[in-house]
Specification:
Layout (H helix, E strand, L loop, with lengths): L4 H4 L6 E2 L3 E2 L3 H14 L5 E5 L6 H15 L15 E6 L2 E7 L21 E5 L12 E7 L6 E7 L4 H5 L2
Parallel strand pairs: 3-6, 3-7, 5-6
Antiparallel strand pairs: 1-8, 2-8, 4-5, 7-8
Helix pairs in contact: 2-3
Amino acid sequence: MYQNKDHINLKHIVTKSSDIDITDQKSLFETTKKISKLIKQGDNLFLYGELGVGKTTFTRNFINHLQHLNKTHSTEVLSPTFNILNEYQINNLNIKHYDLYRVKQKEELDNLGLFEEKNAINIVEWPEILKSYKIKNIKFNFSYSENFEKRSLRISSNYNNKIVDEFK
C-alpha cells in the first residue's frame, strides 16, 4: 500500500461540516453535485454508514456528474462489493471505487494497490479497516435518523479542504 510523505506526517487536523439533510434524492444529488466540483485529483473519499444509507448512490451521482461536466457519457455505477474495485476513466481523470466490506485482513489490502496512483480519486466504502493507516482523507458519514425517516451526511477531514468549508 502506497503511503507518501504527506500521508505519514499528517497532523491530526479535524474539520467538520454541519449535518446535511440528504433524505430525498434531489438533496443528495445537489449535495453530490457541489462536492464533485470541489474534488481534485489525489483526493481520498472515505464513505461511512450502514447498509442502504446512500453511499453507493452518492458515488453514482458523483461519478455521473463528473462525466457530465467532462462531456462524456454516463455509465452504470454499481457497488463493487464482490469484485472490491471498479475503475472509471473520465478523460484524464481516474476514479477508483473500492468497497472493503468483505475485506477482513489488512494483508488483503496489499493486493488492491490502494493509493498507489497518486492522481486518482479514491472512493472507499467501508474504510474502517484502514483506520491505522495515516491517509489524507475526507470522511463522509452517512446516517439515518432514529426512526429511519431521514438521512443525513456529515463531512470531516484530517486536513484543511474546501469541501468541509463549503458545508459548515
